[in-house]
Specification:
Helices cover 38% and strands 17% of the residues. It is an alpha/beta fold.
Length: 330
């Protein structure tokens, strides 16, 4: 099976790239070569997907069993890909987002038929618009789509609700005993999925004939409160978190940029029903508990001083919110 990943070396996609190669897939990675991630056994096509005219020669003559775009975010990205790959791929997989599901949810259990509606986050609305464009292309011309909606998925990042991702800031704050913020009272349920687990479900969809025209989310079945998530991170760094609970609506008033990631996503309790992906890919099972996965992530950061980047802007944001909360008389 011959597969093209557009991207393929990112936080979610690198694990899928490695597993695809392990399973004997003839994998090509189309990227600009800016990330220091090696996928042994994969072939590389150097190029920028945002410049399709320049890629024409590199892609000419290729026929793909599957094309996956890990970095499409807006409807123009989708139309570009349809124009570029129609007639040359048997399956086009779009990486959408579970944040596209109805917010706030009318039912806590999320299935693939849960309505897509997110008035709080432009990122999610763009993903919904991408899905709409793909479904129209499938209905009108038979463009062979599959849609995948990851939720919060991690590997070598620190996947907290905000002010944390591919930097060392939260690890540093915890080890210094500084205050950290947990939205709400920390008891809403959430699911965090390791990218190695996601890959087991995702790679099983590559070239899957019955997956054409279908949408899937792929998540862990482990449910944790945000208090438990922070406790697990604290154990991984060796320091109990000094938690301050602040209501999500207050956080969004002080820092409006948080509205999407909180009110449009992580402030809601969410339980994913993974029956569909398990039916289509029977070998899929999430086996990495968050306690183990976050320990691996922290160890990865600790292994290289160059990875220990502390972002002053993140600290400034957290400290400003904490000061506003204290001033409000909390």
């Amino acid at each position: 099976m011959k597969v093209l990943f557009i991207g393929g070396t990112g936080n979610i996609s690198a694990s899928s790239s490695r597993l695809a190669v392990q399973k004997g897939i003839d994998l090509y990675l189309l990227n600009r070569g800016k990330r220091k991630v090696e996928v042994k056994g994969a072939k590389t096509i150097s190029g920028d997907i945002s410049r399709p005219a320049e890629l024409a020669k590199s892609l000419a003559g290729h026929k793909w069993d599957a094309v996956v775009n890990w970095i499409a975010f807006t409807p123009p990205d989708i139309q570009r890909d349809i124009d570029l790959f129609k007639g040359s791929c048997s399956q086009y997989i779009f990486i959408s987002s579970a944040s596209a599901y109805q917010k706030p949810p009318s039912h806590p259990v999320i299935t693939e038929s849960t309505p897509l509606c997110n008035p709080y986050w432009e990122y999610s609305r763009n993903k919904i618009a991408c899905e709409d464009a793909l479904n129209q292309a499938y209905r009108n011309s038979g463009f062979p789509i599959t849609i995948v909606r990851p939720s919060l998925t991690y590997d070598t990042v620190i996947p907290m609700a905000f002010c944390s991702w591919n930097d060392y800031t939260m690890i540093d704050r915890l080890r210094k005993g500084q205050k950290v913020i947990v939205h709400g009272d920390g008891t809403n349920l959430w699911t965090i999925t390791h990218s190695d687990d996601f890959a087991r479900g995702f790679v099983g969809l590559l070239g899957h004939q019955q997956a054409i025209g279908q949408a899937f989310h792929i998540t862990s079945d482990e449910l944790l409160t945000w208090n438990q998530i922070w406790q697990a991170l604290g154990e991984a760094v060796g320091a109990a978190p000094n938690i301050v609970h602040i209501p999500s609506d207050f956080l969004c008033r002080v820092q409006p940029e948080l509205t999407g990631t909180l009110l449009g996503d992580k402030a809601n309790s969410t339980i994913f029903d993974n029956t569909k992906i398990k039916t289509f890919v029977p070998e899929f099972k999430a086996v990495i508990p968050f306690k183990a996965g976050i320990r691996r992530a922290v160890e990865w950061f600790d292994q290289d001083k160059e990875r220990m980047q502390i972002l002053p802007a993140c600290n400034d944001t957290l400290n400003r919110i904490l000061a506003a909360w204290e001033k409000a008389g909390a």
